[in-house]
């Protein structure tokens, strides 16, 4: 699934440009992805694209600290939570986008929730939201797409 998401990010500037799912599925199959992987990625992406505008809006106005539930602590490693805090501290994620990232991470299987996958999920949230982010943080997140670190 992550390979499909990374491919979509690299091939399409705008996630709205692939609203014809049947055509997109055909293009992804022609690119060599299997049907199950394509469907999983597109379902995951559909869920992200269809968040209502106000679904997590209250998180942007929160003034307190984000406390993770027991389930979130169990499923999201300290390293993943640290990445989210880092991205939030450096202006890449606001409260609402952080909650979107958490929601999409929790939609994954436990063994799929890693720092690289969290970077890709954060990048996908920012991409779908058409958000700008500081260039150095963007480079850090892009290593999840390219599979190699771009920052020292």
Characterize the largest beta sheet: strand count, sense, and whether it forms a barrel: none
Order of helices and strands: HHHHHHHHH
- Helix amount: 55-70%
Weakly predicted, low-confidence segments: none
Radius of gyration: 15 Å
| Overall outline | globular
Pfam family, one: DUF494
Family: Belongs to the Smg family.
Protein name: Protein Smg homolog
Structure in words:
There is one protein chain. The chain contains nine helices and no strands. The radius of gyration is 15 Å and the shape is globular. The chain has 152 residues and is mostly helical.
How are the secondary structure elements laid out?
Blueprint: H1 2-11, H2 21-30, H3 35-49, H4 57-61, H5 70-75, H6 78-89, H7 95-106, H8 115-128, H9 135-146
Helix pairs in contact: 1-8, 2-3, 6-8, 7-8, 8-9
Q: What is the gist of this entry?
A:
The protein has 152 residues and is mostly helical. The chain has 2 domains: 50 residues; 101 residues, no CATH class. It contains 9 helices and no strands.
């Amino acid at each position: 699934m992550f390979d499909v998401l990374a491919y979509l990010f690299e091939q399409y500037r705008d996630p709205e440009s692939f609203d014809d799912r049947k055509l997109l599925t055909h293009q992804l199959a022609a690119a060599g992805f299997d049907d199950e992987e394509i469907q999983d990625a597109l379902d995951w992406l559909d869920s992200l694209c269809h968040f209502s505008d106000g679904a997590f809006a209250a998180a942007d106005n929160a003034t307190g600290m984000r406390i993770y539930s027991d389930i979130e602590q169990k499923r999201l490693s300290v390293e993943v939570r640290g990445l989210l805090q880092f991205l939030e501290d450096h202006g890449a994620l606001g409260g609402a986008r952080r909650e979107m990232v958490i929601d999409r991470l929790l939609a994954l299987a436990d063994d799929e929730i890693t720092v690289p996958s969290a970077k890709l999920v954060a990048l996908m949230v920012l991409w779908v939201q058409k958000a700008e982010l500081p260039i150095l943080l963007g480079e850090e997140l892009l290593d999840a797409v390219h599979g190699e670190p771009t920052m020292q």
